[in-house]
Amino acid sequence: MRPYIFLLLFLFACEKNDRFKDEQLSPVSVAISSENGIVNIPGPGEYTKATDDITIPVRLVFSAATPKLFTVNIGVDNDTVNALINNQTLGNAVLLEESYYTLPRSAEIRFGLDTFSIPLKVSMQAIERYYGRDLALAIRLSDATKSNTLDLKGQLAIVLIHTDKVISASEIHYLSFTKAGSVLMEPDGTDHTLGNTEVTLPVSVTLGGTAGSAFTINLSATPDTAQALIDNGTLAGSTLLASGTDYTLPASVSFPANTNVAKFNLTVKTASLLNNVNNKPVLAIQLSDPTRHLLDSSKRTIVLELDPSKLIETDITSQNIRYTTQYENTSNGNENSPKLIDNNINTKFLLGSFSTVWAMLEFATPQTTGAYTMTSANDAPDRDPKDWTIEGSNNGTDWVVLDKRVDQNFGSRFLTVKYTFSNQEAYKFYRLYVTATHGSSLWQQAEWRLLKRP
């Protein structure tokens, strides 16, 4: 049995050797497979469609099986395409721009092949941008090595992509501001962040269709848009905010892969809101130059009208009509209870023999608050407050815990930390109740400030 198998292998090897022996095979002629110089997509050949691009196998054909390994250069001929477009030979076609495709610059052809496919990858952005028109790219072969030649008629072919047959109108990926279409009142919801010096407002951008690879889109202020609405009376009484002076926004927003919504933060200076507390500050933002997909021309710009009364956080500590504490430092007037609310982080309230301590603010009328700050003092981190509550009352006797913190650490001296909590009730009395330090028998704190949130 074994001699028989060996004989078969020997005969097959001889047959293959006879077929591909260099001196017995002549050089071949190389051509691009087409129909009268046109490669229609869709057409007889297959192509692969993905979310971000399509891949077209441009097929090379040979006059016979290739005798040996050789290379052929691959290029494009934009002049030919432009000439055919100008004389309307290609109908409504437009030139496929270089930024929208990738194409190998050469092909290595191995021996024994009858055909060889070159992958032409075309961005879906081009197909979406020119939807309803054809995209044209002329591919030209040159410099076939090893004495192989190029077919005179087949060395050039035009790939013609019929965009409306590759995708439907409903498949186009449009980019837009999520809430574009009318003037957006801000704040819109509760996901904004208030601060002493600035307010952060999240703004979202939406991608229609099925999400694919990551991409970015540029952002810019467009003051003329907002000013035009002020001038024509749509935003009568409003004040235009200046980019860079009154607010800042990032240069771009990034969409992670497989994501349909991305957000960026618009940062507005609190001082600018205070300066326009009786006006309606407005600004406009525009999307441009996405690295993928298309802009929805009707929703690429958003106009924001800000309500300062809902965005300004107010320190109401000094508005109290009475301030009392559980204990007092009677031995050192420079470190007594008034130093806790004197709005000076370089002073402090210090107590010895600490067990607990509370500080209470009374107001003339009930106040609604949802934030406060705590500032560490100058030395001895083990004296810092670790556990505490913020409590509210309307009679000074019955207290409701509004916020509870445990195991809090201050990373440095004179550090101010802001805490927020959910509260819709107004109280006439508020108190800070500290129940533990970081191990010391002394307690110290530079500041406690109570903030009124809109």
Summarize the structure in words:
- This is DUF1735 domain-containing protein.
- It holds the Pfam family BT_3987-like_N.
- It comes from Chitinophaga silvisoli.
- InterPro entries: BT_3987-like_N, Galactose-bd-like_sf.
- The strands form 7 sheets. Strands 1, 3, 4, 7, 9 and 11 form a 6-stranded mixed beta sheet that branches. Strands 2, 5, 6, 8, 10 and 12 form a 6-stranded mixed beta sheet that branches. Strands 14, 16, 17, 19, 21 and 23 form a 6-stranded mixed beta sheet that branches.
- The chain is elongated, with a radius of gyration of 37 Å.
- A hairpin with a 6-residue loop joins strand 29 (385-393) and strand 30.
- It has 3 domains: 21-169, hypothetical protein (bacova_03559) (Immunoglobulin-like); 174-310, hypothetical protein (bacova_03559) (Immunoglobulin-like, Sandwich), CATH 2.60.40; 315-452, Sandwich (Jelly Rolls).
- The termini are far apart.
- The protein has 6 helices and 34 strands.
- The chain has 454 residues and is mainly β.
